[in-house]
Design goal:
Strand order of the largest sheet: 6-9-10-3-11-12
Distance between the termini: 39 Å
Number of strands: 12
Largest sheet: 6 strands, mixed
Order of helices and strands: HHHEEEHEEEEHHHEHEHEHEE
Strand content: 15-25%
């Protein structure tokens, strides 16, 4: 990224310098030519002054043209990226018949299970080697490990964005119906990423992005589950208080709680929290996790965290170290 940005800046500097040099050269040629014509008596002094005024106007337009060139290239690059995304092949939603059977049942819980999975990217070494993982219904399962050890890769597998090269990655309900994790099973998950995901608008607008038909009472209930209603209720307009882009006007911890409330409001069976409580104090974090599992809204919760204390309060803990994904029997 750094190299590409330097190349882009170099191109902008070189282009601007070249066009400025050309513009300056043309200006001097025109100036010399006009002086020669005046000296030869072909034009008058008044004509020369009028020419200079028009030349200044033309020079300003030429300067604007110089600035358009890098902007046009930037716009073309962005358009190319959008076209690349729009031309992607449709995801392969595996075992959709089994997904429909799970939806038809009055499920009492969703369990996620990975068995001896090998996961790697194209032409790369294994990120996770023969990893076992299980997240049972009614439990909070924590995954801990240093940065760059594969926690994001694990999330991609759970969301069906990445498929194991070997082993099983399945989702099953209480009746024992199983289906492979894929794009089709993604509707069972709500994912709260690590970054700030609050948008400009009211708090209610941010929550209703996932359920436009939700009532005010449902919004308040979701905020209470995420330990967010205590500060939202103190805002001048409550749930209709406005925030700026990226939650401007809110603290990082408040923005995280609103994002969790939005995931709770969606009403899916599995909640994935990727460092989504990192800005909360331990007491608030513990209260939120208890609320999530006793609210009846979330059946299975997977928590990615760096905090050993947070992992110690979870029902099940896994550690990612190197390419190994191991269950930790004790805090």
């Amino acid at each position: 990224y750094k190299e590409k940005m330097l190349d882009y800046n170099k191109f902008t500097v070189y282009t601007s310098s070249f066009m400025s040099a050309v513009g300056t050269g043309v200006s001097y040629i025109c100036f010399g030519w006009s002086v020669y014509r005046l000296w030869s008596g072909y034009i008058t002094t008044g004509t020369l002054l009028m020419f200079f005024q028009m030349a200044n106007s033309l020079s300003s337009s030429f300067s604007s043209l110089i600035q358009i060139i890098p902007a046009a290239i930037n716009a073309a690059t962005c358009a190319g990226r959008l076209m690349s995304v729009s031309e992607l092949e449709k995801e392969n939603a595996l075992d959709m018949e089994k997904v429909d059977r799970i939806l038809e049942k009055e499920y009492k819980g969703i369990t996620i299970e990975l068995k001896e999975v090998n996961i790697h990217y194209k032409d790369g070494e294994n990120v996770i080697h023969r990893g076992d993982f299980i997240a049972n219904a009614g439990e909070i399962t924590a995954v801990v490990g240093p940065s760059g050890e594969g926690k994001t890769t694990l999330i991609r597998v759970l969301l069906g964005l990445l498929h194991p090269m070997e082993g099983r990655a399945e989702l099953k309900n209480a009746e024992g119906i199983k289906c492979r994790l894929s794009a089709g099973t993604r509707e069972f998950f709500s994912y709260v990423p690590q970054g700030n995901t609050v948008f400009a608008g009211t708090i209610a607008d941010n929550l209703r992005m996932v359920r436009p038909e939700a009532t005010d009472a449902e919004l308040v209930s979701a905020l209470e589950t995420a330990c967010a209603y205590d500060f939202v209720s103190q805002l001048p307009d409550g749930i209709y208080a406005r925030t700026g882009e990226l939650g401007h006007g809110l603290s990082e911890g408040q923005a995280q709680r609103i994002a969790v409330a939005r995931a709770v409001l969606r009403g899916t069976q599995v909640l994935l929290l990727d460092e989504a409580t990192s800005a909360l104090d331990e007491a608030t974090e513990q209260q939120m996790l208890e609320n999530l599992m006793h609210s009846g809204r979330v059946q299975t919760c997977v928590l990615i965290t760096h905090r050993a204390a947070t992992a110690g309060r979870c029902d099940r803990r896994y550690v990612l170290h190197g390419t190994r994904l191991c269950e930790q029997s004790a805090p």
